[in-house]
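Quick illustration, no need to memorize.
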Amino acid sequence: MNPHRLARKVRFSLNPMLSEDRPGANSFASNPPGEGLCIFLQLAVTLAGRADPLTGMVVNVFDIDRIVRRQAVPLLSEQIRSRFRRGCSVDFTNLAKLCEMVSDTLADKFERAELKEVALSLNPFREMSIDCEDHTMVYFSEKFEFAAMHRLWDRQLSERENLELFGKCANPSGHGHNYVIEVKLAIPAEQTRFSVGRFQQLVQDNLLRLLDHKNLNADVAELGSRNPTIENIAEFAWGKLAGKFDEARLHCVTVWETDRTACSYFGPEG
């Protein structure tokens, strides 16, 4: 068993109308940097292994960068450019295939470490990933936001106990959050009917309209009888979304209350 999981993100940009992109000098932003109006992508790899007793590393991240930039980035760039030159879109099926190709290309390149996952960020809020041990499914996730207020309070506890337990979150007037929720689907790799627009509308109709600009204690019956913590909100979201995606299976729901506090819920698919 490999106890450590190491993840590394590699950012790059490409102008699909150019034959190639020149190397840059700022890998934090993007390298290659792209020229003019270009496509920005982020490729994340997750490795499993044991930390070397001498170096304390599973794999040196500089080696990960070098391998990904030499092996995977040119592959992605060429595949995307090829479709653009032919006037073809890069649709869901093509993206799934690209993730599989990257997985196959990098599978044996990290010596002592095992490649576990490849994830391609399509924009700052949307991602596709593949389990490197099972190419039959790809995972698509997108983040949404909603604003709501709540008060944390347990009716079985005294006022003093509630204040000690929940602190300022027990404020009688409540308090608000700008929540972020990520919905992640497991989709068969050969699926050709998946529509991002329909996915977004299903999340909007079945979940966000119930939560956005609401008092979670008073306006949402299922949460009013429970403490509207992010744990319970995530479970509530799962219940509203499971079984709603004909072409996919709900994999998990993650709710951020702040950028430091989040909870993911994995439940039985309805």
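The domain at 4-132 is CATH 3.30.479.10 (Tetrahydropterin Synthase; Chain A).
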